[in-house]
Amino acid sequence: MKDVSRTPPALEGRRERKRRETRARIADAAITLFLRKGFTAVTVDEIAEAADVSKRTFFDYFPAKEDVVIAWQDKFTGPLTEAVAAGPQSEAPVQAVERAMLDALGKTATPESFAIHALVQGTPALAAREQHKYVLLETRLFEALHARYPQENPLGLRLLAMVVIGALRIGTEEWQSTEGLKPEDIPSFTHKVFRMLWRQLAKLR
Prior knowledge:
Blueprint: H1 9-37, H2 44-51, H3 55-61, H4 65-73, H5 77-85, H6 93-108, H7 111-121, H8 124-148, H9 154-177, H10 186-202
Helix pairs in contact: 1-2, 1-4, 4-8, 5-6, 5-8, 6-9, 6-10, 8-9, 9-10
Protein name: TetR family transcriptional regulator
Keywords: DNA-binding, Repressor, Transcription, Transcription regulation
Domain HTH tetR-type: 20-80
């Protein structure tokens, strides 16, 4: 007898795809409203209406408005960890993280991402959670490095992940405070940050 209590894999795939599409639609609607009106001025009711979902559906996907922004910012994690894994075998860990950072920034740094970062910095409720985002990103970077370099001392890889994500945070702040920079300046700016980072670390030896 056929077990009708189990959902066929094809249907499970469609269900998951629909959930991803709904989540993305809610996030896109929310980010558009946040950038247009400011974070605090936007209500969950407005987001739900713009995304054509119920308020209850919004909370099925996001516990609070803040989580929409944090989830949107997490788009950087995948490209970064994938780039770490994709490097040549001869590449050292320090070379891998610099190349991966350049690759990930090239894929995710857009005028919208800069606007969202400015929104976060100007909104206390979001800025307070920004540090947690960097902690999670540091953990994911360490995991990617450890998976690629299992022969390396894990403590050394954790320290490398820590200083690189710290450089990302400070570099982002410096970028935001420097007038006249354009998206095409990202590679040279990133190289500059890493040159300064490696130079300062070399002085500690």
